[in-house]
Amino acid sequence: MKLLRLLPACLASLPALLGASPVDSRVSSATVYADRALVTRTAQVPVAAGENTLVFEHLPASLDERSLQFSARGPHATILDVNAATVFVSSAPAARVHELEEQLRALQKQGRTLDGRTAVLGSERDYVKRMLQAATAVPAAAPAGDAHGAPRMSLEEWQKLYGYSEEALGKIDTELQSIEEQQADLKDRRLAAERQLESLRGAGDRSEKTVTVRVAAAEAGTLDASLSYTLGGAGWTPSYDARLSTAERSVELGYYGLVRNATGEDWTGVSLVLSTARPSLGGAAPEPRPWIVDVQAPVVAAMPTAGNIMAKSLKAERDRAARSQEAYAAAPAFDAETLQARVEMEATSATFTIPGTVTVPSNDSTQRVPIASARLAADLRYEATPKALPTAFLSARTVNRTDYPLLAGPMNTFLDGAYVAASRVRTVMPGESFELQLGADEGISVKRKLVSRFAENTGLTGGGRRVTYEILVTVANNKKTTEHIRLREPLPVSRNEKIEVKLTSPEEKDVGTKESPREVMRGDDGILAWSFDLRGGERREVPIKVSVDYPADVAVTGLE
Questions:
Q1: How many angstroms separate the CA atoms of 75 and 212, rounded?
Q2: Structural domain boundaries, residue 225
Q3: Residue 264 contacts residue 96 (beta carbons within 8 Å)
Q4: Domain total for the chain?
Q5: CA–CA gap between residue 41 and residue 56 (Å, rounded)
Q6: pTM of the predicted model as reported, rounded to 2 decimal places
Q7: For the segment 169-190, what is each residue's pLDDT rounded down to a tens digit?
Q8: Coil, strand, or helix at residue 78?
């Protein structure tokens, strides 16, 4: 391809000189990668016998001329050449400015509606709380002559009151949470529209691309023309919703693509394909650099100068930037029945063809499109490290039994309909097992108590010291179902032969190893781990007793 950079006046007269025909094309499909998009425009173009010049106007300035591809079907024709030119336009499109202004007014109106509903729900919640407070207030002393005082509520009335209050407050909180999500989405859309409007209003001269195609046709007819090119300013990342049903022991996993379009042209009713390919990496592996080992030269001490200090500062800044870039490159790149995207596994990537057509405006906002939805059987268990945080966290182990590779990305977790946590999914291929971290669950109560810490002298002459810790961990299953619990408690680990750690409870004979696993396991890092089932309504106490012995004349760190 060759690029022609022409003045607007010259370019305006060029089609007339060549007998060119402006092509009325539309974006029909877009393949979106992590950092760019391949866009295809289609049109039906009448051609005459002989040479014809087709002009595709008003294309984005970020169009990559090297990626231009043109094809056509119809009367026998030969493509002579394809050229791209840059055109400078000095006026902002008034229609687009008016459209964005109307969009902003509509978004502001929606925001005021949500604010009003939030105020109403707040008043309703306050009313329910005042009603509960009034019902539970201690009645005033009975007046003289009244033997019974104010009437008391029956147990059935109490149950009805609390049941109504719990249901009402739950509905109010759920709707408030939904409103918060809508308000956050409105804010993102408003900011994106404001940025684009500001850009349009402040734009002076701006550039566009025009693509000119010369075609020689053997006879007159109509060509089905297709023009493809890549654009920056677009990309997509995966996102997930995990909805866990504890009763059914299953996870409804929703797989979505978050698509962003800031290319300068709207995609209206297009066929959308999401690709995992990374064209920015190039086609070949990088060349290795020699690993040089040499004798270190002697260091000559010198007084620091301003130049040395500046050089060191710049080097340190470059090193920090390099470490940051390496960490970013090493980090994962990348959330009822839904439509399923068609997946195609290729040699180096996978593509997801979104069913139907999709509209993605060029306003740099995020459009969420469904890729797949699957119900996966899950093995649930609770994990807790009470010393760090006395809370039980639910996890589900499952297998990707779909045909879709799950790319690393953020995940929103819902437990029995309630939003509980935000986490991440690692990359998981079809058939591979993986674990979903589903957040804290207050249905399992965990408490840890330091019962005693006792320090004493040991030995006949008092030449030794011993510190003994007694700890009690209590776990209660407030659910109706039997749940699997895994507790972890760190024990002191000696890094010196003069310091000896003794575990009294549980007894060493009850602690398993990799070769002989038991309910209680002790790792090389000193972590004790309990793994057991707890029936609904059951409570269990786990006592721990450990002592640290060391010479009295040795200063020991790490004792609590």
A1: 19
A2: 2-90+205-232
A3: no
A4: 4
A5: 9
A6: 0.58
A7: 888 888 888 888 888 888 888 8
A8: strand
